[in-house]
Design the sequence.
């Protein structure tokens, strides 16, 4: 999940796995696989960076959420604060 900012300054948490495309229109338009479109304040490059960071964090800490990591809180995962 990544945190993006809507044009009314409200935060929205987006499932990065559902992002189909990110367009500069000249604003940034995020299209989800569900067909929903979200106009956000972040630049296209920032959205891509957040998705890349999120995926790297998940890959790096995948064992934390596995069978051996169930006792850890999500906040204990290094870099969790940067997800959003």
Sequence:
């Amino acid at each position: 999940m990544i945190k993006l900012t809507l044009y009314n300054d409200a935060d929205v948490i987006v499932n990065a796995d559902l992002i189909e495309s990110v367009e500069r229109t000249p604003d940034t338009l995020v299209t989800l696989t569900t067909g929903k479109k979200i106009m956000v304040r972040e630049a296209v490059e920032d959205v891509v960076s957040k998705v890349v960071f999120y995926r790297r964090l998940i890959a790096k800490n995948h064992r934390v959420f596995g069978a051996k990591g169930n006792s850890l809180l999500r906040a204990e995962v290094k870099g969790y604060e940067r997800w959003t």
Remarks:
- The first helix runs from residue 44 to 60.
- The chain has one helix and five strands.
- The CA atoms of residues 64 and 70 lie 7 Å apart.
